[in-house]
Design brief:
Order of helices and strands: HHHHHHHHHH
Radius of gyration: 22 Å
């Protein structure tokens, strides 16, 4: 039963994603194609038109990448309501959503790799790093989307505008405070070895992924708990 409910979540999310993908690709590629046709009518340059058409796969891949992030960023509050009304636990909902994220990310990444093969040869290291970027960004968008699902419309605007500005100010303050330490840090051999080490980047990435994963799951459980309490109060 648990696996059936988890699979139901995955199939539902893929149906929603498929519907959104059809609309996004239809509008995006349709507008680009109309622009190309207008250029053909004006210039009468068929060769240029055919060359322009070769960019359509790359444009489609870019649309899919942006859409992947948007799907998990704009997390409908109704998704949690639907899960609770169908007797799906917080744990099962989370498993279904994180598996959906991984599968969707893998699919979009694979399409991007196929499109890149049209222009550049396959490079394993580059492809692996690209997959990590895709997954990291998707997980980040899920964490933000789950957090925003806790807020009403007004607070979404406040947090959506205020939080990036606050982060920017804090970053500028941090950079300014470190300016005086740069000469001392630059003279430190230990600091240099840490900065240039490949392990440092991987450690930062792993720590970051653990943090956003924990936040995404925490917000997922909190939203489910709040929604469950609201449903019980109406019974």
């Amino acid at each position: 039963m648990k696996n059936q409910k988890r699979n139901l979540i995955i199939s539902t999310m893929f149906q929603q994603a498929g519907h959104a993908t059809g609309i996004a690709l239809g509008w995006g590629l349709g507008i680009v194609l109309i622009i190309y046709l207008l250029e053909l009518i004006i210039s009468h340059n068929l060769e240029s038109f055919l060359v322009s058409l070769q960019a359509l796969p790359s444009i489609a891949s870019s649309i899919l990448s942006v859409l992947l992030m948007a799907i998990f960023l704009v997390t409908p509050y109704t998704d949690f309501k639907w899960a609770i009304q169908n007797g799906i636990s917080r744990k099962t909902l989370w498993q279904g959503r994180i598996l959906s994220l991984f599968l969707m990310t893998l699919a979009v990444w694979f399409i991007a790799q196929l499109v890149d093969l049209m222009n550049t040869p396959f490079d394993l290291a580059s492809a692996w790093h690209s997959l990590l970027w895709y997954f990291g960004l998707s997980l980040t968008m899920m964490a933000i989307g789950n957090g925003f699902a806790l807020l009403n419309r007004r607070w979404k605007w406040i947090v959506g505008i205020g939080l990036p500005m606050a982060c920017l100010v804090l970053l500028m303050m941090l950079v300014y405070s470190l300016v005086g330490l740069i000469p001392a840090l630059s003279a430190s051999g230990v600091f240099k070895s840490i900065i240039i080490s490949n392990i440092t980047g991987w450690v930062i990435l792993v720590v970051y992924l653990i943090i956003v994963y924990a936040l995404a799951r925490f917000f997922n459980n909190v939203v489910c708990k709040i929604k469950l309490e609201k449903i019980k109060s109406h019974l």
